[in-house]
Amino acid sequence: MTLLREFRRDIAIAVVAFLVLLAIGFGIDSPWPRDFLTSIFAFGLLAMSLNLLIGYTGLVSFGHAAFFAFGGYVFGLLLQWEGFTSALGGASVPLAFVAALIGTALYSLVIGAICVRLTEIYFAFLTLAFQMFLYSVILSWVSLTGGDQGLMGGIPRPPFLGIDLGDAHHRYAACALVFVVCVLIMRIVTESPFGYTLRMIRDNAQRAAFLGVNVTRVKLICFVVAGSIAGVGGVILALFTSGAYPEWAFWAQSGEAIFMIMLGGLNVFVGPLVGAVALRILNDVVQMYTSHTEIVIGLVILFVVLGLRRGLLDFARDWWVDRQQARLAAANREGEER
Fold first, then answer.
1. Taking the chain, what is the end-to-end CA distance rounded to the nearest angstrom?
2. What does pTM read for this prediction?
3. Domain residue extents for the chain
4. Are 33 and 24 in contact (CB under 8 A)?
């Protein structure tokens, strides 16, 4: 009953969050909130999906952005394929989305089957090697990917089911819905028995194996789920930019996702999302005053890591727990004195 109650609560929160996002996008007569939030949808899914590996499973991946780029490129290439769009018409957009999701899942399954057998630094650098391989393929296969210029000519957005993705409001609403559904799926995964199995593997993989858990299989499932959701983030960004670019598969994109997790906190579910918002705002503000963006952002991250020693939401949660415990201890002392 507790799980069912939590499931209903999470669905209610997701519905409210979606309505709030719609109110912001449709209620503010300016393109900036829609554009900013759409970018947060994409990078937030990248960071939160990576935290399924880092925060919940203890697998630090340096190459997670490969799936982000893969999803975006598959989606964009299918819609740029004239035979695909002309044959399917309005159905081409949802089918391209499904194909990008399935393709990213299969790609992450192949990569994960190799990587999850390794641990710690070996896992991290092998994922980085696969990401840089994909980056090299994107740059060298110019006839297909456009090379270092990315997908040229834009991505067609034929209407489907009354939704016109060429309209900024429709596109924003569709991206918001996909984002909320993906976050809800991750929430269900992390709060399910499978999610607690991930935590057990993170804390002590040997003990989990001793208790009968197939550690390699569970890690692989998590790897595929995380890669697939990162691919959805790439699809959202491809829709937003009407293209796909090789920088999405560069190692710095994965590093930025790790920064988001460090900044927001890896022990709170929405911590990476808060980190994505904070990093994007920080980047925009810094660019208004100086061209040395990387230096300023690096100093902020150093302050969070060395000063707070944890992410912003991790710090806030620990502060709140300590405060509650102090109040409880004070109340117990008063009761004993009486």
1. 40
2. 0.91
3. 2-249, 273-338
4. yes
